[in-house]
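Changelog note: in this version the structure field was regenerated for every chain. One regenerated record is shown below for reference.
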Amino acid sequence: MSLPPKPEVDKLKVCPHGGPNWAELEALGLTPEEVIDFSVSSNPFPPPPGIKGIFDTIVIDRYPDSESTELKQCLSEILGVAPDNILAGSGSMELIRLIATTYFGRGDSVLILEPTFGEYEVACQVVGAKIVKQWGKAEDCFALRMEEAVSIIRRRHPRGIFICNPNNPTGQYLSQSQVEMVLDSSRDSLLILDEAYIAFTAESWPSTDLISRGNVIILRSMTKDYALAGLRLGYAIASEEVIQNLRKVCPPWNVNVVAQKAGVIALKDTDYLQRCESEIRQAKQFLTDELGRLGFTVIPSKTNFFLVRVADATAFRTALLRHGIMVRDCTSFGLPRYVRIAPRTMTQCQKLITTLKALKDKGELGASIG
């Protein structure tokens, strides 16, 4: 008999994500290169110029800088915070697990505003924390109900609060006053403000001043911003004390040398995000307009991705995947009648709409429109 894991891990359920499943594609006779992937909410354009030439400039027979010093210095200059207020991570996923390991334990309650990114719950379950959930309502476009959230916080006194802002998968975005309302009602709680999708969010507000409160961690994802999914790169912004605590638990050399260098090159291309944002905004507008004309209900979103109401998300995703197009089935978010779509290039967006029209004309899509 093999040695069983601890009870928290034994009961753990794997959190599904977007992106291609290689075995699924092989069964359909497809390769990843043949699929247009609208299921991942990252920048659809190539990374900044210069990143492909990294291997000509780096040394890979030595360990990387454990502190990611050059990367943190670049971030410091852009963000206007000290390097000691920044911790680089191998994607924001690593940082979420790191925060849970550092600050939460068995029996601690953690509030998660749902529907949202499933890895918050997984990270808390791994350390034995108790999950408290507040669900948004479809009739409100899944917007946070502030009075109810404040009531839960004051009644349950959670050790931690996860807020994805803008939220994945709904695209809802809390104002500064709403976030401050949460903080004012939870002075003894750690607020994790996940801003992985902030780069392409309309009318965003500067959140870094919040770290002066001492109980706030802001997460950002360079994977999403700069099309670096294969390299895994993100960072946390917090008070110096919080960063020091996270460093105690953080594995050494957690960000590889290629990712560190790519991050520096990306940050120095100061016009890159603006160039991409303009085209992404146009592609999003095209998609939402055309989907509306096809009879779909599109949920308003403040960021690049958005929800679309369908009759059966799993069937809808499967129908498109047979034609080499992938969208995000939101059943795993608790939304079995919604798919999430993130814009890609205009040519690819046009192919998505053309495919949907063809499926509808053939009668293969009628039952899928919500």
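Spot check on this record: The radius of gyration is 21 Å. The longest helix spans residues 272-293.
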